[in-house]
Amino acid sequence: MLTLYYGPGACSMASHIVMEESGEKYEPKRMDLAKGEQRTEAYLKMNPQGRVPLLQLDNGEPLAENTAILPYLGKRFSLWPTDGLAEAKALSLIGFFAASVHPAHAHVGRPERYTEDKSALPGIKEQGLKTFHGHLKQIDGMLAGREWFGDKFSVLDPYGFVFYTWGVRRELPMGELKNYTAFKDRMTQRPAVARVLEDEKVKV
Ligand SMILES: N[C@@H](CCC(=O)N[C@@H](CS)C(=O)NCC(=O)O)C(=O)O
User: Fold this and answer.
1) What are the φ/ψ torsions at residue 188 (nearest 5 degrees)?
2) Which residue minimizes the CA distance to atom 1 of ligand 1?
C-alpha cells in the first residue's frame, strides 16, 4: 500500500487529491510543518530534503519531489497522457510549476532562505509576490478555452490547483483571473477535492 506524507495547505495537496481521486486504499500521514516534523531524524532518513510530499511505495522505498511523484501516480491511476507529445507537454508544465511558480511563492513564505540580511527580507517577499502573481496570470492564459490543463483531467490539475489556493492565501485578486477561477470551481465540485480541502482546512 502507498503512504503519503503531506502537510495541510502545502504543495503535497496535489498528490493528496490524486490519491483521493484514485479510489485506491492508502495511508495518509499528516505532517505538522510548523512544528518541524519534516526535520526529524526518522523523516530525514526518508527524505533528506526535509520536505513534503513524500510517497512511500508499496515496497517501503521513499519517493520524493512532485516532479517524480505526480507522473508516477498519474501512470498508476491512468491520470497521465499516453501520447508521446502530450506526455512531453505534461512534463513541461510540471517543470514550470516546480521550478518557477513554486520557488516564486517560496520567496514570499520563506524569504530567509534567500538572504542572511534581515533588512532584505521585505524586498524579497515583495518581489516574490509580484513574480508569483505574474505566473498565476500566465496560468490563467494557459487555461483559456480549456476545461483542464491537458486534454482530460490528469495529475496536472491538482498541481495547478494548489497555486490557486496559495494566491487566495496571499490575498491576490484571484477573481480577476477568470479562466483560472472557473477551473478552480470545476475542481472544487469534485468530491475528492472537497474531501481534501475539508481535511486540510483550506478555504478557496
Ligand atoms: N521540490 C520539492 C519542494 C517541496 C516543498 O518545498 N515542500 C514544502 C511545502 S510546499 C515543504 O515541505 N516545506 C517545509 C520546509 O521547507 O521546511 C517538490 O516539488 O516536491
Assistant:
1) -70, -15
2) 65
pLDDT of 1 reads 97
Task: Give the SS3 label for residue 163.
Answer: helix
How many CB atoms are closer than 10 A to CB 139? Answer: 21
pTM listed for this prediction: 0.97
The torsion defined by the Cα of 53, 3, 67 and 116, in degrees rounded to 10, comes to 20
Return the ligand 1 atom nearest residue 98 CA.
19
> What does the pLDDT look like over 162-186, one tens digit per residue?
999 999 999 999 999 999 999 999 9
User: Residue 145 C-alpha to ligand 1 middle, in angstroms?
Assistant: 31
Kindly state whether residues 62 and 121 are assigned to the same domain.
no
Residue owning the nearest CA to atom 20 of ligand 1: 65
Q: Which of 52, 76, 100 finishes a domain?
A: 76
> Does 186 lie in the same domain as 129?
yes
User: In the structure, what pLDDT confidence band is assigned to residue 107 with cuts at 50, 70 and 90?
Assistant: very high
Residue 55, domain CATH: 3.40.30.10
Number of domains the chain contains: 2
The domain of 33 spans 2-76
Ligand 1 pocket test: which of 52, 72, 112 has the largest number of ligand atoms within 8 Å of its C-beta?
A: 52
**Calpha distance 110→103 (Å, rounded):** 10
Q: Is the CB of 70 under 6 A from ligand 1?
A: no
